[in-house]
Fold these 4 entries.
Entry 1:
Amino acid sequence: MMQMGADGVFVGSGIFKSGNPAERAKAIVKATTFYNDPDVLAQVSRGLGEAMVGINVTDLPAPHRLAERGW
Amino acid sequence: MLPLGILALQGDFREHGYTLDAIGVESRQVRTISDLESVAGLIIPGGESTVIAKLARAYDLLEPIREKIANGFPAFGTCAGLILLADEILDGIEGQESFGGLDVSVRRNAFGNQLDSFEAELDFVGIPGEPVKAAFIRAPIVERVGSDVEVLSALPDGRIVAVQNEHVLGLSFHPEVTGETRIHQHFVSMVKRSN
């Protein structure tokens, strides 16, 4: 996102629903600052525990699907 | 002259780069000590002053930048950059750190929240001709000015929005988002004079 010209990156559940939120948050902040430094990116991408597991849309009951309920 | 540095931890560092491009001045984004050692002066952009200070602390840049500025290294801050160059911050968060270098007191968010942002045309000491086009975005204000600090611009009601001493320049507003290049040019001459 930063390489494409974004001013910043917002991450919510990707941090809080991951295996180690504190380490993942630190890594994302550092990766955002050093987005053009492959060494830093490789370094901060290691040892972060499990990433957030998404929910398959077909597993969501219809009333919980944002596209249908509107908000 | 070495390239001009732009502190690129957070904020509108790209816009400062575009402004320097427009006046033909080479720049380099600064994120590490070695970046810092390869530039002739440092621009501290707009953004969020607490975030920039925390990242500078986390990436071991806070003390080196503070020390360099204290020893005469030229620095230019806009908005959050002004806050970070102030010796005293008013309405900061608890324990908020700054690089310092300007003997001024600066109040954060002095005009209110984001919706109170505005643009203005300003008279500016040393910049004749057209008024300076200034964007005030959740801007700070200078409330106290030390004896070695010169006031370069104020709003019609007298509130101070631009100050400098021998080697440090600070603005409440953003010239880098309005196409205004003359203040960057002024900083370039400060840097040339100090080298």
Entry 2:
Amino acid sequence: MSSADALLAAEARMRSAGPLLAGRLPELLDNGHRDRPAVTFRDRTVSYRELSGMVSAAAAGLCRLGVRPGERVAVYLDKRIETVAVLFAVSAAGAVLVPVNPVARPRQLAYVVEDCSAAVLVTTPERLATVDATGAALPSLRHVVVLGDPSRSTRRDVTTWDELCRPGPPRPEPPGPAADEIAAIFYTSGSTGGPKGVVVTHGNLLTGAWSVAGYLEHTAEDVVLAVLPLSFDAGFSQLTTAFAVGAHVVLVNYLLPREVVRLCERHAVTALTCVPPLWWQLAEQAWPPAATRHLRYFASTGGRMPAPVLDRLRAVFPAAAPYLMYGLTEAFRSTYLDPAQVDRRPESIGRAIPGAEVLVVRPDGSPCAPGEPGELVHRGPLVALGYWNDPERTRQRFRPYPPGGELAVWSGDTVYRDAEGYLYFVGRADDMIKTSGYRVSPSEIEDAAYASGLVGEAVAFGVPDDVLGQHIVLAVAGRGGQPCDTDRLAATLRRDLPAYQVPRRLLGLAGLPRSGNGKFDRAALSLQVAGGA
Amino acid sequence: MPADDTVVITRMDIPSDFQDILRRHLPFSDAGELGEDDDLSDLGLDSMGLVALMADIEDSYDVELPDEFVAETTFATVGSLWRAVLALPAEWQDARLAG
């Protein structure tokens, strides 16, 4: 199928299916030729037939464990073939998939498991031992499945991967079309409070997969190198947009940029999506022609791509189309810039992706004129159901548009539209820190600092950074007017926070500035630091 | 049995000072002994941890790591990393033993 045909087919599928595609996530695997490679990790490749078999076996195992439809299964794994199998097996068993970032620490894992009351956790022996060592009770868990040696855990409810997948009697097929049913919960930082679980349906995921595979012109000939973590929407879509057309996914747990170059050469990679800080590192590598020859596109998501990096990448990959994309977890992806427009409007975040409707509106809900900044509002079949177990924050972000109409995502991002309909990002209304392609809430860092017992006051904020977008600075004052032991605090934060959330710099102060209403004055602190204090 | 052309490496003890450095950057390592076959990725080494680990090795041993140190094969297991450290220029080894 040619790329234009793929796009037309994707659009036709979305139209014929009405607002939501019928079917369940695992049905994506039916699109691959049975004997073609589906997933490669290190030296092992499985075909679509083998992967489907693994998914069925693991799904049957989850059902044997007593997992009921709609129950949550948390998957806390780095990338490997079994990870892909279990992600789809959870859906095939009718349960709700909750992917957890493999770099999360026990503190974040416990938050997610407790928030969604997960019944099963799938993880590695090393991660389980680290979680066990914290003494976290995790009372909702009935079973833990470990990929590897279970003997290090003292838990009684541990099942190994081999036991999970052992052959058993066939199980009844789960009931049919499930477009409106919950498929997954993706956790993302909130500007206030703890991380929020974005609840997405099978219809959201399938519509998103077909839309993105369509405009990226994916075909069965593509080889997608999955560099991004599978635990967030854009990373997970590396799988869904490839499986939608029967393409081949190569997994890598990103450690060194040089490895990405080598894998592009070894597997003749055609499709590569990264976040800007990764692109920055990759742009600095030596790329032999054999590593770039097959690359059909390079795509960036999760923040603004700096112009010098984009220029360098276009020189490195002269034959590849650059795709600049913008999205929110609450609606998967909103816009992309047509590669043909990159020279004309490199600053633009593009236009709505197929199947989505993106508006720029005033506070009263009326549409903005061209050039007039307003809030980006996203409508249509990609809009998630809301935040798990959090009606208050759901009401803030998921509101009808137009008034009285269907639920839309009010992004909180300020944008404007030019006369030809292209969108431009202006800024955000909240204090969220954007670092390494992640949205990080200041309160997550501050809560970890308070939990250490070493600080009386703490304020985290982002400071502009060429490579990371922003890096995190944490200003602290000790308890009861005492100076804070910042060395001990740094060691505690390194233990309790994933590396991307660890502040680059700790600023020990006698007291933190407050604004008129008594709140900490983040703006003053951030100006003080950005000004070279 | 290894084939004839395989380099046979006898089991090595990983010095405790090196284990202490490693543990600081391996979020899923516990207080137990690290073995040469332990996979750094399974123990949670990620790209940010790798940068911090290299800086820590340089500071702790007062050594500058050369470009060729930064290879996937170096960062595969505890043993592969320790062997790469042992292969650093000799004056550094003397300083470490003296220190």
Entry 3:
Amino acid sequence: MADRRLMQGNEACAEGAIAAGVRFFAGYPITPSTEIAESMAKLLPKYGGTFVQMEDEIASMGAILGASLAGAKVMDATSGPGFSLKQELIGYAAVAEIPCVLVNVQRVGPSTGQPTAPSQGDVMQVRWGTHGDHPMIALSPWSVRETFDLTVMAVNYAERFRTPVILLMDEIVGHLRENVTLPTAEEIAIYPRRKPTKTRAEGYEPFAPEADLVPNVADFGNGYHVHVTGLIHDETGFPVGSPKVTQESIHRLHQKINRAGNEIIHTEEYFMEDADFAVVSFGGTARTVYEAVSEARELGYKVGMLRLVTIWPFADEAIARLAAKVKAITVAELNYGQIINEVQRAAGGVCPVEFCGKYDMRTFEPPEILDAIKKMCEGGGAN
Amino acid sequence: MSEILRSYEKYFRRNRLPHLWCPGCGNGIAMKAIVQAIEKNPEFNQDNTVIVSGIGCSSRASGYMDFDTLHTAHGRAIPFATGVKLANPKLNVIVITGDGDCTAIGGNHFIHGCRRNIDLTVVLFNNNIYGMTGGQASPMTPTGKKATTAPYGSVDRTFDACSLAQAAGATYVARSTAFHVNHLTDMIAGGFNNKGFSFIEALVQCPTAYGRRNKMGAPAEMLKWMRDNAVMKAAWDKLPDEKKTPEKFPIGLLYETNAVDYDTAYESVIELAGGK
Ligand SMILES: Cc1ncc(C[n+]2csc(CCOP(=O)(O)OP(=O)(O)O)c2C)c(N)n1
């Protein structure tokens, strides 16, 4: 067993990246994500990896995509304004099927907003920020140790599905310090870079999907002469102006993720066995919700909570089951109302869904959530 | 009957040809100069060389070249190429870009690539116009010339991309034209030999989106214009100022210096950190 160490969420993210095999990081400083870049600058050369500070977030994103194609596992980290700048190349990574992890340590927006203050206002941008139809995987940790674990998971999903994966952190968890014991290398499962199973002579086509709908694109420098483009392309990798190929490739991009929903979508439930009411939350806010729900239980309210670990793809089934079980749901999130729309959609009108939001640059206090719980329970679920 | 190939043709994906460029376009000349420079270099081959391009007519060249090729986003070829090179320094990385791609939307990446002296060879196909989008002005459209977005003639001042590269820290800077094709090949070959950021501006004619609107005549006339106005560096240096008219420009190796490249510099970071 490794030592117990006091560390910050952002540091745990960097440790997780190294443990998952990330050997290339390109970044640009921005609060509250900067410690991730600083940690990577220190750690990567120790492992023979490369850290480069680029001229902006677009360049950082381009550099990690180039490095990924050259065979490295890659990550970069940013916050609101930087995440906005990356959007075009996030779409590039999706359509060109380039494994990469992007960390977004959310802060208050829009624009420069409140640079050091916590928020969960990028939930929808993570899903829909880049233009066009594309799937997205996003994971959101609520503790320092889970930040480590979800970073490893994010790197593994990026490699497994050859897609951008977003680690959706928030300032609360990014700057949280906790005593943690990190797993040893033997305790961590690593998904290796996918490799071609055919030679060129055998008719290898870099973007031909395997049974899991994910292609085994050869890394550069292995003699495969792969062509990578952001244009819609067929299985050879070359652009085609065909309606059929366009439709099929956009569909496959979605299906490779959607079909693996059971593997990707994680939720956690607390106090749910006999609960009549539930609070849905995620990330740093879920910590406050846990406190409030524990207090509510002591006061005799039959309330539980569901925490979204995977934000995207959305946990439709878990929410539908929840809606069928409880009399009402409250969604607590640190924004003006984003994930609540997904919860309402997935609940399908089976039970009322109420909103507990906050966007004043402060985190929730347990009494605020407790009040919302009392209101929900005393309302009895009647709208 | 077996087809007789010219020696450089093996560097092309012949099943992707013919290319999409207009008749009379100079991009094919510059693309051929690149592969001929590769052919001359004993250390460059199709398996250890990566071609990275941005977006534009010129950037479509990557799709025709039989290497690992990366057609990126508008302006972003140099950051992608930086990642390729740093992740696998054994690869030779060549960037193909357009004047808009490199000096407008990609301008910041261009100067920082130069500053880092990252070991890339960047070939700018300068057609003085946004070709792919149909003839809008670029930062390298000469002042006074017409473009769809400068219907009365451009009032913008023009970038000299070679001076820019030199000022920003590139360690090899050269210019040539589609008319001087053997010279262009030599300039690109020289860039491959420099371990650091090498920049070659290749002037190419765009009869469709630039020449026609500016009454520059047929493609052959545009090539003759290059012949008549390009001055070899040595002669340029001796040319009296009054003869350096706005049309005239120097070609050749314009600047060369020695400086440690980024990969090599980073090796010392790995050493200091105690890495392998
Ligand atoms: C972000 C973005 N902005 C604009 C465009 C549209 N666009 C495509 S090519 C191009 C200009 C290309 O001009 P240049 O770089 O000079 O290359 P050329 O086509 O002349 O070879 C533009 C503006 C784009 N693809 N992406």
Entry 4:
Amino acid sequence: MISVTTILAALGFSWARLSVALILSTVISFIVGIFAGVNRKAEHIIIPVIDILQSIPILGFFPVAVFFLVTYFPSYGLEMAAIFLIITSQVWNMIFAVYESVKAIPNEFIELMNIYDMSWLERFHKIYIPASVPRLVANLSVSWAVGLFFLSSSEIISLGTTNYQLFGIGSIIAQIIGSGQILDIYISFGLLIIALILTHELVFNTLYNWSMKYKYELVSAPKPTPWLVSTFVRATKPFKIFVKQVRLPRRPLSPVAKSLMSQETLVPIEIKKPSKTYVNEIRIIKIMIKSLIYLILIGLIIYLTFLMLPALIGAFQVLTNLSQLLYILYGTGISSIRILVSVIFMLPLIVLATYVSLNKLLKSIILPLFQILASIPAPLLFPLIVYWLGESRIEFASIIIIMLGSMWYVFYNSFSAVESIPNELREACTLSGLQRFLLFKKLYIPALMPGLITGLITAVGGAWNALIVAEWITLGNNTYEVHAGIGKIIDQAANAGNFNLMYAALLVMVIIVVVLDRTVWRKLYDYVTSRYKYEV
Amino acid sequence: MTSPEKQLVTVSEAKKMEAKTMVPILSVKNVSLSFNTGGKSFPVIDNISFDVMENEFVSIIGPSGCGKSTLLRIIAGLIKPTSGTVLYRGNPITKPTPKITMVFQNFALLPWLTALENVELPLLKLIPNKDVRRERASKMLEIVGLSGFENAYPRELSGGMKQRVGIARALVSDPEILLMDEPFSSLDALTASYLRSEITNMFFNSSLSLKSVIMVSHNVEEVVELSDRVIVLSKRPAKIVAEVNITMQRPRSIRMPMFMSYVDKLYELLS
């Protein structure tokens, strides 16, 4: 039997990893997001690259990262790999949040900054960072959940003959499930859920409330952000007690406001012209910084190509072998069907999302419940579900895991789309006598289409990732596996130390995911947003 | 000037004369509304009663946030009052009816439906035959001056045209009472003034069954231009401060000597 203190310590270790990763992600997203939002050239490079990076199933690359980092930093390479994995799972979305916030800054603000000739530091401090705070903070809790998803599967990994293990909640729960002590399983999940709720209420809700003072949106046209935290906040009344007691810090008044408020006469301000040598110095420094950035970028690209070259060669060697290629393609096909089935299972969620949005009682039950369910990492649930369903229903269990890792996006995006239907539209439909089926057909279904598609895109992206944990798992001495799938191929190859096969499978998966994203999803998204969005 | 407008006005004036002896088409009786939040009740509307006669254009004005739009929604049957009733031809209104329809401030057009499909919306339940429904809807678009725009989507229309679609949708189900919730306030001044000058013409078109209009507005000039009677509400909780009959002949213009004195009077009552 494992003691509660051990579980709590494991939670502490995992939480520390997640916190470090989240803080690093925040810093990275501020720097990269603001840079992309301000600089046109940077925007043209950064945004498409990130767009591709975020649609790549990162989890598949984890064995590669572990392999490299453990080779280079034997003592703490595994910790670095885990944190690196968490960052790569969450940072893209956060960068987009900052980038889009910066892009959405009204032009008047930019003009204001130019009129007062504000320095870069002042611009960051006064405009860009505050402007991106609300969306970034709204993104934090989902980033935490995503990070936990990846962390829980990154704490145990076996590459070839070596088993790597990090002490944390993921490894502890796997160990407990392996030992088959049912009571311990429930205790550990209970503690995990309590930790999640506390983190949510004490940290993210407080941060969220604090961030609201940076909101300057004049028109309340909520964009479908991945998870609508604000509705959670409103719906989870019983947990709100903590938040209410937290006092929001008051910002000190600016000197200008102070002088305006006091009755003293204003002292005329002298405008100093910068000296010529100063201007020249600044120019030289700017050029130096620029060349330095370019040098680093070029170096990085060369280094990465150098690193990736053997992997690519290995992948091609595998792919040119017809039987190996067919093996990978067959696995991909089966996995695609698995994803398709789970997407079909997800579709009824839009009806549920509509009912939850319309019914106060349902809202107060379903939203907090889903919030907890959604934040339990699916990889941890996999063994439990296999245990409940029995080993013979592994195919079904695997689809459930894929859904648990991705369906929340469909639900919450559809839900927030229904929530944001303007009241006048609802009233117009009611006055037109539309009810039930007609109301769904004419109002709710079209109104939630953009949310549904946004949700599905994210969900399917998540599903490709979830394949890695949903198709193959070892617990203690038992291995549970589906009959075929790309995730299984990657897992087995990593486990057997057959890196070339792993690289080949990853390459195929990345190509398929990126191509599908560029063609099918992008087109569908453009069509749906142009047809079903309402301007306010 | 022998505009058709003037003729229509005289017809409507004649109708009004006979209406005087009739029962009101709509009666608001002792309507109150309060919201309950956290065990406390906040009164929004405080015991409001008034009648609307046939062929009457009644406007409701009041300070912003006083609950005038809420009152309109109670009349529409969208919101249930805490106490009191609204009678339409003697029967209490408990749910929305196609006989009382509404024009919205922000038009409330479904962006995924064409102009024609938007106008068809209230007929989906009323007329099962698709062709008959289509024809009726396009006739109504013609009446509001939008023939040729049947297949345009709302985003392709200007603000004024959108509101015309909104008006067509409100009129298509043969209503007797039309409710308008600040119908001109999201239009630019010029478009609003065009639409205003056409609106009486549209409404009291002899081919329509429309009997009365109730408009909520915060624009005093627009209220004086259009209304037969103005109900002035106090700030929250809303009570009736005054009822002002506007007896100027139509079409009305801001240059008429009486016009500004009505405007001044209403401003005085509002403050």
